[in-house]
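User: Here's a protein and a ligand (D-glutamic acid). What would the complex look like?
Assistant: Let me lay out the input and then the predicted complex.
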Amino acid sequence: MTGNAPIGVFDSGVGGLSVARQFLRILPNEELLYFADTAHVPYGGRPLDEVRGFALPICDFLVANGAKMVVMACNISSAVALDAARLQHPDIPIIGVIAPGVQAALRQGARRIGVLATQGTVSSGAYTATAHRLDPTVNVVENACPRFVPLVEDGLSESADAIDAARTYLEPLSRASCDTIILGCTHYPFLINALTREAGDLFPADHQPRFVDPAGETVREAGVILADRAIAAPPSATPHHRYCTSGERAKFARQGPIFLGGPADDVIHVDLDSQERSYSLARLGRGVG
Ligand code: DGL
């Protein structure tokens, strides 16, 4: 495995681009191979076994196409598939976003953590379990937000509907006097304007919550692992990022640059439900580099 190999990053859709954009900022020499499972988005309301059944073949695909590391830029996948993926690929570092999110919150002094997440992540109990493993005395309140992901996927993050949903989902966290709110779904950082605006109204002025986006901490953790294993990209690397979508290629090609804040030129459709499980990007006409 060489430093020039890509880092595989995946999510159900555009949410993981909130993690990808931090890679571009913090580790700009690293090449990304991004997979958006937009044929199956949203994951959040699905049975946890079904989500695991999506996440593991995506890991296989990323590893088969040369990924030197896999980042589950998807909370629900991190909650239900991380252990199984690590067992399946013992030689590849695979990380999720939940532990980094909790670590970032605790480092900022959180005592009453609110978690906004999808129904599946909340049902898994992964945030509360992780927080209590790291600090048994911390309080955790989780709230499921089923309206959020479709709003982000449809480009409606700044809409009146998004603001109304933000208010609805923040109310229980305000009643619980949370000092810190973890964005426990990678789509939610794209709703930060609606969330901060409604928190400003709902929480007392002198007790405004801190919002934690796990993405930065996740990328820093990835950087430490790459350095430890001596597989970081060399400073001279000129990465060529590739974006795969199981859904409509043209839609992702339109959305990508908006969420990334930069170009997403190389977008390819990949159907992991087809018989061709051993999909290779090279066979699809794209060099793996
Ligand atoms: N963005 C994903 C997460 O972090 C999944 C959202 C969904 O598809 O429901 O959980």
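Summary: The mean pLDDT is 95.
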